[in-house]
Design a protein that fits this description.
heterodimer; A: alpha/beta; Rossmann fold; Alpha-Beta Plaits; 6-stranded mixed sheet; 4-stranded antiparallel sheet; 34% helix; B: mainly alpha; two-stranded antiparallel ribbon; 10 helices; binds adenosine-5'-triphosphate; binds magnesium ion
Chain lengths: 306, 253
């Protein structure tokens, strides 16, 4: 897959003196879903805003579809749809008109059949003639998505698209995003819901304090940093673990011993461990393993790398 | 040139005007009628005539310019300021359009509104006074250029303003005095020589005078100087907007 977006040494210092991004380099591949994770104020919105032409970079170079975002802004921006983090709409406008406006703004000819498809996919078709001020927060956010899609972008930026959207709708929006991916749209999303990144992303980038700490395939990331926990349930409670099993942790009721290990290691030590239980004469009732989530990975990373 | 984008912005801005035609047109017409009652009927009967033109007719071009200036500034500055205020400006900034297209859409719509209002005022005035119109084509041309020029500066004001107070500041503190001192209600030749000289430093005088010339064929300053003043004014506004979009001043942090 070729790079749809190339970011080289991008930096941004706002007039206030805040350094929001420093030396960010990244290739975003065509057709992938990239999730950007990071705490509040990490620089995610700044990053997206620069790529979309809303914020002037202080240094570095960005090309979108091979077009420099500053010199060749028309070609670059024509490829992009943006769903901003903050909801801002013309409140007295109707849903359908505001979506038509977005399409027209990008110089595309009117195409109501296309807009109908988008509104239906976002469960907004019934609301097409409603004024924006009459919509709920989650609906407004979906209107923003419809506006961003109205001109048929090849790249979609979603800045916290599911903030304030209920669980069912969130799942529906994920479906929409997956549908777009299957049409070959490149998607960059920021989120605070790790569950969302885990569910959606092909790759995950972690930003903290304006630096891109890492970008990795999600599965590699889970693999590399993922820990597994093996929990051994005992038939009889014990007061202490024998020395041979000292690498385990005993629960306070003495009924469970847990063992943390790297899932990708060549030797996990599980076989030896279970043999030790038998050798020590401790009878095992059940065994369970649990994989750590991206959330655990994320928290560890921010702690370790920052 | 991306005409579809321009038209999209233009139509959006005009839609507001047509949605509430009475509010859009009634206010300027009412204030014009008030000026007629006060200046034309009450004071005008004592002034008799200026350069052989009845005072009621004499003030019409100045009155139109006054309204056009106020409306152009207000319409264009509000349109862009509201977008900044609400946040919908991001949509314009992220679109694949050049500053010329943005300006053409916003400023074009604001200017057209002023032109419509000016024509309505002119028609209203015809109900009150005998009004010659010696150079109708030039009158329309000057009207359009003036509307466009001030809408352009209004657009700049909307970008510059950080709050509502600033938005009101220039129209109140700069434009209204300049218009009143710019010979809207009198001829500069009525002033003592020294003050006539001072009045001629006021750019609005050239607008009012030039516009009045298209009605009556006579003016305080040569028509050519009016046209040159207008061209400079337009040119400066255009360069300023271009520079703003180039540097992102107050638009792109
Ligand atoms: N227009 C601005 N002017 C000055 N500083 C800004 C501006 N926008 C953002 N910042 C600062 O830049 C830093 C990065 O902000 P940014 O909005 O990019 O973070 P974020 O990762 O999107 O955070 P969140 O998760 O809260 O949305 C913050 O310190 C913020 O205060
Ligand atoms: Mg943000």
């Amino acid at each position: 897959m070729s790079a749809m977006i190339e970011v080289r040494d991008l930096s941004k210092t706002y007039a206030s003196g805040t350094s929001a991004l420093s030396g960010v380099s990244l290739d975003i591949r065509e057709g992938e879903i990239l999730a950007l994770l990071g705490p509040n104020g990490a620089g995610k919105t700044t990053f997206i805003s620069i790529l979309c032409g809303l914020v002037t970079p202080s240094g570095g170079k960005v090309t979108v579809g091979g077009h420099d975002i500053l010199r060749d802004y028309r070609a670059a921006r024509a490829l992009i749809g943006l769903v901003p983090q903050e909801i801002a709409l013309e409140y007295f406008e109707t849903v359908i008109n505001t979506v038509r406006f977005s399409r027209g703004l990008y110089g595309k000819p009117a195409d109501d059949a296309y807009l109908e498809r988008i509104l239906r996919a976002l469960a907004l078709w019934d609301k097409r003639d409603a004024k924006l001020k009459e919509l709920s927060g989650g609906m407004k956010r979906r209107v923003l998505i419809a506006k961003a899609l109205s001109h048929g972008p090849r790249i979609l930026f979603l800045d916290e698209p599911t903030a304030g959207v209920d669980v069912n709708l969130r799942r529906e929006m994920w479906e929409v995003v997956r549908g777009l991916k299957s049409e070959g749209v490149t998607i960059i999303l920021t989120t605070h819901y790790l569950e969302e990144a885990e569910e959606m992303a092909d790759r995950v980038g972690i930003i903290d304090k304006g630096r891109l700490l890492l970008v990795r395939d999600k599965s590699d990331l889970m693999h590399e940093f993922g820990r597994k926990v093996l929990t051994v349930e005992l038939t009889e409670p014990i007061t202490a673990l024998p020395p041979a099993l000292s690498s385990l942790e005993l629960s306070s009721d003495g009924l469970r011993a847990s063992y943390r290990y790297d899932a990708h290691a060549d030797r996990t030590g599980i076989a030896r461990l279970l043999a030790s239980f038998a050798a020590e004469g401790i009878s095992v009732r059940d065994v369970a393993t649990e994989q750590s989530s991206l959330e655990d990975v994320f928290l560890r990373l921010v702690r370790d790398l920052a | 040139m991306n005409w579809r984008s321009i038209l999209t912005i233009f139509n959006f801005e005009m839609a507001r005007f047509w949605r509430t035609p009475w509010e859009s047109l009634a206010a300027p017409v009412v204030s014009t009628v008030l000026y007629f009652v006060v200046f034309g009927a009450a004071i005008g009967t004592r002034i008799q005539s200026v350069d052989d033109i009845s005072y009621g007719a004499f003030i019409v071009p100045g009155l139109i310019i006054l309204t056009v200036l106020q409306q152009s500034l207000a319409n264009a500055s509000n349109a862009i300021f509201m977008r900044k205020f609400v946040g919908t400006i991001h949509e314009i900034l992220a679109a694949p359009i050049s500053f010329i297209e943005v300006v053409a859409g916003f400023v074009g719509a604001a200017a057209l509104k002023s032109v419509i209002i000016a024509i309505v005022i002119y028609l209203t005035a015809l109900l009150f006074v005998d009004l010659p119109l010696v150079h109708p084509v030039l009158a329309l041309a000057l009207l359009i250029l003036t509307s466009f020029g001030f809408a352009l500066w209004g657009f700049l004001m909307g970008i510059w303003a950080k709050d509502w107070q600033q938005l009101q500041f220039i129209p109140m503190m700069v434009i209204t005095p300049l218009v009143f001192l710019g010979g809207a209600f009198y001829s500069a030749s009525m002033l003592p020589p020294f003050w006539e000289g001072v009045a001629k430093l006021n750019p609005v005088l050239y607008l009012v005078s030039g516009f009045r010339w298209t009605f009556f064929g006579m003016a305080d300053v040569p028509i050519l100087s009016s046209i040159i003043a207008l061209a400079i004014f337009l040119g400066l506004g255009f360069v300023a907007v271009w520079a703003i979009f180039r540097t992102g001043w107050r638009l792109r942090p």
